[in-house]
Amino acid sequence: MIPTSDYLLLSGLLFTLGIVGVLIRRTAVLVFLSVELMLNAANLAMVAFARAWGQLQAQSAVFIVMTLAAAEVAIGLAILIAIFRKRVSTEVDPLSEMKG
Amino acid sequence: MLPVYLLPLLPFLGFLVLILFGRRFPGPLAGALASALVGLAFVVALIDFFSVRSVPMHELLWSWLPGIGGKGHNLEIGFYLDRLSSLMTLVVTGVGFLIHVFSIGYMEHDPRFPRFFAFLNFFVALMLILVLADSYPLMFVGWEGVGVASYLLIGFWFEGKINANAARKAFVMNRIGDLGFLLGIFLIFRQYGTTVLPSLAKMPIKTDSALELICLFLLVGAIGKSAQLPLTTWLADAMAGPTPVSALIHAATMVTAGVYLVARSHFFFSQAPVASSWVAWVGGLTALYGALSAMNQYDIKKILAYSTISQLGYMFMAVGVGAYWAGMYHLVTHAFFKALLFLAAGSVIHALQGEQDTRKMGGLAKTMPLTGAVGLIAVLAISGIPPFSGFFSKEAILGASFAYSPWLWAVGTFTALLTAFYMLRWYLLVFSGTYRGQAHPHESGPVMAVPLVALAILAALGGVIGPQLLGSNWLENYLKPVLGLPSLHNPATTELSLIAIAVLLALLGFLWAYLRYRSGRLTDLRGFGPISAKALYLDDLYAGSVASPSKAISGALERTDRVFGGGMSATGEVLTEPGRWTNLWQSGFVRVYALSMLLGTLLLVLYLAVRMLGGSL
Fold it and tell me: How far apart are CA B268 and CA B309, in angstroms?
């Protein structure tokens, strides 16, 4: 059986990839993708712990996260499309109207 | 007989249409519409004039202030048409109509043509409300309304600072009078429990100090509106408005509202001898003041403005000595000849492309024969030469004032001499001699000529409504049911000698002006000349005694305010500055926000980790 620590390692790797992606990518679509990656890294960690402890709470939490992610995708993509229609690009850096 | 409310309603409709849709009326159409509505109002006034002879009409429209006079006593919006107000409606709509028509020609090149006629219609509507009001509060509405119209029309060419200032001056000085009028209304309500004119007229009014005070307050109001001493200086400046406005508002109708107010309140004034003598003497002194100021003016309209002040003084004399009918008589004839004088001046100004300085005129009787002829008729009428209209009305006033006080008569008669002098001076400067200007004068077109001719006929023959020579006369008898008691009359021989003296003095005034003209010294009155040109320094007196102190006070207050204001702003700045530093964090870059979120989470995790490890350590 694959040890729990391997799962956690993979989860950590995915999470780091996600953070780096959010920080260095300028295209909103890829930023979005990276956020999804981070969510799923967390999911993986939770599932791994659930297996390690033999309990189901964490597994059910994963379902909540997945639902949440689906809802977030729906809204997020809608916003993205709206921005694209207005600006013909999905670069995030020029979106600075709300600057204080 | 037609409903009375039609009278103000017709011009008011014209005002609404022209102010809202003025741009849709091309060319002279807006003027034609405005004139037609005032003409219609004149027809209504004429029909009602003939049907109101026996019983006055009191028309209640709706309840305005319910329960104001105690339970069950409402103040209604109502119009009261009796012989007095009917006469006024004829003057306002009739002369108003002619001046509207004249304006179509005079204002033809103005870019705000429809707006001008909207304001004129507004004025006529509010003037009719003033005249027809059945209560003092409603009269006050019209009173203020015509004040607004006057303000808007004096400053019609508001691009010029002088015009805008003149409009403001007129408004502010009128406000002083309005305060008096308001206090008068309050006191009337307190003393008699009602402000409705027909009810007050039926009440037994006793002579007491409260009544005298009421009348003096009303006099203050009348003084403001009719530019009498000491609130007289706004009228000369009001000449900044277009000339038809000067003719309609500042000569024929609005400024006579003060006279109308006193005549309308005759049931008060006839019981208030002290206040009435104030009215008479204010009038006498103003008549003299206006005539003295008019003697050495150069502006073609300013001469007429001071002459208006002087003639209004005559009317105040008349209503002050109790000859209310004579005041109304002079009001009517003055409306004719003064409107004519102003329109003739307007015709000249129009022909000379806006030139108003009489020193750059002269000889215009040759190039503008019609204007010259009607101008001469008006000059004869105002100077009191028989058989022109001004003669009869002025004799009625001078006769009544002689019976009241010979001193007042002496002031009035001396003023008549001066009147003849400055009016012939006006005529000679403008129409006689050789032309001294650069423009190419030409006679005005028919749209301006027809009103001139109509007014000339009225100015020449308007006296027929009440010549006093025959003892009783039509106008006095006509107004008797309203105004009650007959005025003072002199014995026939006294009357005839008074007339002879006045006519002789008027001719003497003519001779004086003509002799100066012959010797070429018409524009140069040594000694008294500069004093007259500055209108007896009244403006300078006010500038020194009222304007400069208040300017100094407001300047000091402004500086104080600036100190306080500066302190407040500085405090605000100091408090805002640290807030601005945190603004830097809000850079607008989404990825910076993401990074700060990450760092924040890391800090939280670190804190939790330290706490947990610390607990186990």
Answer: 25
